[in-house]
Amino acid sequence: MNHGTHGTPLAPARSGVPEHGRVPKYYLVKAQVEELLDALGPGGRLPTEAALAERYGVARATLRQALRDLLLEGRLRRQGRGTVVAGAKIEQPLSLASYTEGVTRQGLRPGRTLIALDRQSAEPALAERLAVAPGEMLWHLERVLRADEERVGLESTYLPVARVPDLDREFDPAGSLYAHLHARGLRLAGAEERIETVLATPREALLIGTPPALPMLLLHRRSRDDAGRPLELVRTLYRGDRFSFTLDLAAPTTV
Description:
Layout lengths: L24 H16 L8 H8 L3 H13 L3 E4 L2 E4 L4 E4 L5 H6 L5 E12 L2 H7 L6 E11 L2 E11 L6 H4 L6 H7 L4 E12 L2 H7 L6 E11 L4 E10 L3 E4 L9
Parallel strand pairs: 3-10
Antiparallel strand pairs: 1-2, 4-5, 5-6, 6-9, 7-8, 8-9
Helix pairs in contact: 1-3, 2-3
């Protein structure tokens, strides 16, 4: 979807109507439900499927397809046995800012739940990416990401133990890893990132609390210190229905 300034979504061309003019019935219902969502506002509870199907004069299967699209787009979210209108997506900047900074900037309370913090021997592929010898000890830190207590992602980080030997004793897993590194004189000077869309594994979906069919945004990052040495490898899954990424682009200095 195209976006205007300040992250405001632009409507799809011709409101999604194909060139031949024939619109699937579920899509018409979806547009009607979207009007209801705007009226209810974030947190508003949606009527039951039976009530909505009767309201719009469609079969339950048609209604479910419309609701499924709205769930995948992040307009709706499950709450208990019901469905409520979701708030705006969390905008995470593509920068060296930490998750804490990105979420706090939007007035949300960041949080993390520790899944694992252990040592493991560097396999050849990991060793190459971190510029360490195969077999060197690495920290593996895995945490569920939260925003206002809602589970929104899963982060897995690898760092050389030699660079941060006190991680298991002095680091608060609920806090910012970047703040911990900065306090110990380890500053991030740059990073390479790659983003792709994936489906979560059954384990990941269980930890994040989402259906396995929900699309995820997968971010791979390798960060470097101010001497150009790799410092961390991060694999982060973000819920596709709750996150969008932003990037400020500058014009090139030469044409």
